[in-house]
Structure formats: structure tokens, C-alpha cells
Design a protein that fits this description.
The chain is built from 3 helices and 29 strands. It is mainly β. It has a single domain, classed as YVTN repeat-like/Quinoprotein amine dehydrogenase (Methylamine Dehydrogenase, Chain H). The strands form 7 sheets. Strands 1-26-25-24-23 form a 5-stranded antiparallel sheet, with no helix packed on it. A 4-stranded antiparallel sheet has the order 2-29-28-27, with no helix packed on it. The protein is globular, with a radius of gyration of 22 Å. It starts with a strand and ends in an 18-residue tail after the last helix. About 45% of the residues are buried.
């Protein structure tokens, strides 16, 4: 793990001060960064596949993982329970999981939409569509972003409870390959695009028309993988060129010069301890409003490319990795170390605290 404070080139300092002040309104800095305790799940201990595309915590506190090739799997606290094509999934490539107000899980796959209710998986429409991301808005409408435009048509779809409506570039959509769909606090729908790796920017739909934002407006890169809204109402865009923050009138950028471990940002989260986490191609960055910390494979991650982050009800953080290497990857769980017992605290005060309690040749199985 490495860490350092927020930095930027001198000509950017006024903007950086403004951004720092904004972040400190809802982030909480620590005097020191706690070491994390790590646990990793792979196919060797129950995961159906090591390539993780999405993680989701449902209303009951269960953790779900969408894998690229192993179907849908749920952690029940002791083991992984997996559902695949034989259980009704369109395919075993599950890219996004969301829950509606009725407790149904909507499952985006590479071959269409599924819906699961009371453990039963049924068809949700969009058969054959390669769906990457979805969101359920405040009205209960399901929005699904598709890609592979040359193969399956791409586009954005909205389900109003009865049928699917398609949005395309003819309707003002900036591109047909949608990586991310997000609803902001005003009820507007945002999309992030891919467009053969070049991207077409991000766009906002207010219910009547689309407004597009690109690098000309202040976006770091036009290929947008992730998006979320912070407590102040600013929108964050994770691109392949760094982070972009839009406060409604001005743009701010954050990249490797500031402390971000990598400029390709695939996932973002603010946890219950008021820390921000960013999943990138080269590890996870943690920011507390003042300082950055970096966690990579050598620190406990299953792999450095982090595609998804979710916080469980117990405060543990789950990181889904997708390393593009056969057999590599998995899910890593990070936990804050619990309070030390009195004997442990006393041992810390002794010189050479790492000295084993047992003498050489002692009974290693002793309690």
C-alpha cells in the first residue's frame, strides 16, 4: 500500500483548492490509514468463475456477483450458491444486477434481460441484446444500456412495466454503445458511452431531450465507464483518461498526478466511513478528502483490474476483479481490523513485537 496527499501542477492550484473544500464537506480524513484485513474468493474456494463483472448487495444484505462465464452467484455467509443457464439465465455472462421496489432482481446478461423473483428466473425481454448496465429509476422504470452495436444494435432501452422502448442516436443519444446508466437526484438519466473504445461522451436525458458532454466541455475522456453522484450533487465520471467532476457549471479533473493509482477508472464508491474508493486498471485508490492510499495485488487484491466495488451491511468492502487472464482474478474482501485484546495491546509495547511466543522447536499446535 502507498499513500500521499492531493497534489496538482501549480497552474491548477485554485481549482484544486475548490475541489478539496468540496470533498471535505462529506469525506472524513484520518490521521493515519488503517491496514486492512483481506480475504479472497476464487474458483478454488467456491466462485463459479474468477472474472467478476458486477457486485450487488440486495435489500436483505446478501452479496451477489455477476461473472463473465460462470453465471450468477450469491454469498450466503458460508458458501457460494450459483445459478446458470440451466436455471433460466439467457447466458452465463452476467454483467449487472439491480433490485426493484418489489424485491425482484433484474439481471443483465450478454444475451438479454432476466428477472428473478422468489428464486425463479424468467425472461425479462431484450433477447439477444448485449446488455452491460442497468438502473431502476424512481418511477420503477428499468433502463438498460447495450453495446456491441455492430452485432446486436446497441442502444438504450426503457421498460415502463409493460414494454421496452428504444433510444438511439436518432433520439439524441450520443452513441449506441452504452457502458453506464445512472439516475441523478433530479430524476435525470445519464449514460456513459464506449463507441469502439473512442467513446462519444456522457449525456443527460431530462425526459424530453438529450444533452451531451465531451472533452470539449471538460470531460477527461469520451469513453465513460463509471458514474455516480456525491452528497453535494456533483456528478463523477470515471473515464479511461481519469476522473471528471461536474458541479453543474464547472468541471474538475483528477488523475495520477493527484494520487489516483491509474487513469482508467471502472468503479466508484463512498463507504459508510466517509471514504471514497476508485477501482482502476492498476489497483484501488482510497481518498479521505486529504490523503490517497493505494491497494494492489501485493496488498491483498485478487488482481489489479477492479471492475466492481460494493459495501456489505457489516462494513466490509468487496472488490470484483476482471484481469483478462485465464484463471486469474476473483473477489477480495477488505475489513477494518477489529479492536485488539488487552494481551495484544501489551505485546505491541514490547520490543521486537514480532518475536514468536513459542521458543524454537516448541509445540506449534498449542493454543
Amino acid at each position: 500500500m502507498s499513500e500521499h496527499s492531493l497534489m496538482r501542477q501549480p497552474q491548477k492550484l485554485p481549482s484544486r483548492r475548490e475541489l478539496r473544500n468540496l470533498l471535505q464537506e462529506y469525506l472524513e480524513a484520518d490521521e493515519h490509514t488503517d491496514e486492512l484485513e483481506w480475504e479472497t474468493f476464487t474458483t478454488e474456494n467456491g466462485l463459479p468463475h474468477n472474472w467478476i463483472y458486477d457486485l450487488f448487495a440486495d435489500s436483505r444484505g446478501h452479496i451477489w456477483a455477476g461473472t463473465w462465464g460462470g453465471g450468477l452467484t450469491q454469498w450466503d455467509g458460508e458458501r457460494w450458491e450459483t445459478l446458470t443457464r440451466k436455471d433460466g439465465l439467457h447466458c452465463n455472462e452476467v454483467t449487472c444486477i439491480r433490485e426493484d421496489a418489489h424485491g425482484r432482481l433484474w439481471l443483465a446478461t450478454d444475451r438479454g434481460m432476466n428477472v428473478m423473483e422468489d428464486g425463479v428466473i424468467r425472461d425479462g425481454g431484450l433477447a439477444g441484446k448485449s446488455i452491460l448496465n442497468l438502473v431502476i429509476d424512481r418511477h420503477g422504470h428499468v433502463w438498460a444500456g447495450c453495446w456491441r452495436a455492430s452485432q446486436t444494435g446497441g442502444g438504450l432501452f426503457r421498460h415502463d412495466g409493460r414494454q421496452w422502448q428504444r433510444f438511439s442516436t436518432r433520439d439524441g443519444l450520443p452513441g449506441l454503445e452504452i457502458l453506464k446508466v445512472h439516475e441523478d437526484s433530479h430524476g435525470h438519466i445519464w449514460v456513459g458511452t464506449y463507441e469502439q473504445g473512442r467513446g462519444a461522451g456522457a449525456a443527460r436525458y431530462d425526459g424530453a431531450r438529450w444533452q451531451t458532454y465531451t472533452t470539449r466541455d471538460g470531460l477527461s475522456d469520451n469513453c465513460v465507464y463509471s458514474m455516480f453522484e456525491d452528497p453535494s450533487g456533483s456528478l463523477w465520471f470515471g473515464t479511461v483518461g481519469g476522473l471528471s467532476i461536474f458541479d453543474g457549471s464547472r468541471w474538475h479533473q483528477v488523475d495520477e498526478d493527484d494520487g489516483l493509482v491509474d487513469h482508467r477508472v471502472y468503479s466508484m464508491l463512498i463507504d459508510s466511513r466517509k471514504k471514497m474508493w476508485f477501482g482502476t486498471e492498476n489497483g484501488v485508490s482510497r481518498f479521505d478528502g486529504n490523503n490517497w492510499a493505494t491497494y494492489r495485488k501485493k496488498d491483498g487484491l485478487a488482481a489489479n483490474l477492479v471492475r466492481a466495488i460494493v459495501e456489505a451491511p457489516d462494513g466490509s468492502l468487496w472488490f470484483g476483479t476482471y484481469p483478462y487472464e485465464k484463471g486469474r482474478g476473483g473477489i477480495s474482501v477488505a475489513r477494518q481490523p477489529g479492536p485488539k485484546s488487552l494481551p495484544d495491546r501489551l505485546l505491541d509495547l514490547l520490543p521486537g513485537g514480532d518475536t514468536p511466543l513459542l521458543p524454537a522447536g516448541g509445540d506449534e499446535d498449542a493454543p
